[in-house]
Design a protein that fits this description.
Bound molecules: 5'-O-[(R)-(carboxyoxy)(hydroxy)phosphoryl]adenosine, zinc ion
Oligomer: single chain
Strand content: 15-25%
Distance between the termini: 24 Å
Shape: globular
Strand order of the largest sheet: 3-2-1-4-5
Radius of gyration: 20 Å
Length: about 350
């Protein structure tokens, strides 16, 4: 097989990222996070995200050349996230990649953001090698971020079934909104995680939305509302540090219990021996531990994405593009597409 060298670009939300992936694995990925820009607004502001991507893309790519010694003329393909995501944020990276591929006369590969998350667990964090094997299929994948909560049955490449998703707020959004009620800046998940690790998760019994229902969908907006009512009815509760820890541990436990229970139930139903997980919320230590423990109890392998590949990054985009190229499964004929801000994962399914 010809040795491929792929440059990938990710700009779907508030992280600008570029990565290089070769036949030996990940060479390097760089991420420019915009957290401090959006922090004061309590969430991602699309226009600011677009502006930041525009400012960051060229310097970040130049830095990639500098740190790796790779020259653009060494590339054999360019990949970029086409969707789903913020329309203009996507456009910055996608059209930048198209422009480079036209200039270099090399193929341009569209990547679906969620599909890249599905496989991000298989990038070995120690040496960047690609660990996915045919025997891993079918596996169950949990994607939990600020914008998405999805359970996907991965039967094979381009063979996906969304078996659960949120009907309102995403899990990360729930963490962020609860943290905001406590006075923490965006993103609030890490603040809740930090306090929760020292608290008693049984201190307050918050609802476990849809836990007992037979489907695998989620709803987190009711939990957020009951948290708001709790604060309204117990105005002094959060004045005390140890109670703040108990409060965070209790909220976190309610979110985690639902995520883990549905995931395990879905994996059992579909006879999966492997569960993968990715997205910013998978950085949560309580969630990682509980998923790991429950997978072990059911003799399933649990492979969470390493923290560096769990949030939005171009390494997962590059790895998937490279893998698809190695399988001859990329459409490279027309580089003049526009982005797809709304794009169903299941629309990728091959008909054969
Ligand atoms: O994947 P991501 O970086 O961005 C997108 O949403 O696209 O995920 C960010 C989300 C935020 O909601 C943030 O609060 C949450 O991940 N998050 C966490 C933790 N670290 C990040 N939630 C809970 N515990 C954490 N340790
Ligand atoms: Zn993402």
């Amino acid at each position: 097989m010809k040795s491929e060298l792929v440059l990938a670009i990710e700009s779907s939300c508030d992280d600008t990222s570029v990565a290089l992936f070769s036949s030996e694995g990940l060479i390097k990925h760089l991420v420019s996070s915009q957290t401090t820009i959006h922090e004061e607004y309590g969430g991602v502001v699309p226009e600011l995200a677009t502006r930041e991507h525009l400012q960051n893309l060229v310097p970040l790519t130049r830095e990639l050349w500098k740190q790796t010694g790779v020259h653009p003329s060494d590339l054999t393909a360019i990949a970029a996230t086409r969707g789903p995501g913020l329309p203009n944020a996507l456009r910055t990276g996608y059209h930048y990649g198209q422009g480079l591929s036209l200039q270099l006369a090399i193929p341009f590969i569209d990547i679906h953001h969620h599909e890249a998350h599905l496989y991000s667990s298989f990038i070995n964090p120690s040496d960047g090698t690609w660990a996915l094997k045919n025997t891993h299929f079918p596996f169950l994948s949990l994607i939990v971020s600020g914008g998405h909560t999805l359970i996907v049955l991965v039967k094979g490449l381009n063979h996906y079934e969304i078996i659960g998703k949120t009907i309102d707020d995403a899990a990360g959004e729930c963490f962020d909104k609860v943290a905001k009620l406590m006075g923490f800046p965006y993103p609030g998940g890490p603040h809740i995680d930090r306090l929760a690790s020292k608290g008693n998760q049984k201190a307050i019994r918050f609802p476990r939305p849809m836990l007992r229902e037979p489907h695998f969908n989620f709803s987190f907006s009711g939990l957020k509302t009951s948290v708001r009512y709790f604060i309204r009815d117990n105005p002094d509760y959060l004045d005390d540090e140890s109670r703040r820890q108990d409060f965070c541990a209790s909220v976190q436990e309610a979110i985690i219990e639902v995520l883990v229970a549905k995931c395990i139930k879905a994996a059992l139903k579909h006879r999966c021996k492997l569960v993968s997980a990715s997205g910013g919320v998978i950085a949560n230590q309580g969630l990682r531990n509980k998923l790991n423990e429950h997978c072990l109890n059911h003799h399933m392998q649990f492979i969470p994405a390493s923290i560096q590949f769990s949030t939005d990054n171009a390494a997962m985009v590059a790895a998937l593009a490279h893998y698809k190229m190695s399988k001859g499964m990329v459409e490279t004929r027309n580089p003049y597409h526009d982005v797809k801000p709304v794009w169903s994962l299941e629309s990728l399914n091959s008909t054969n």
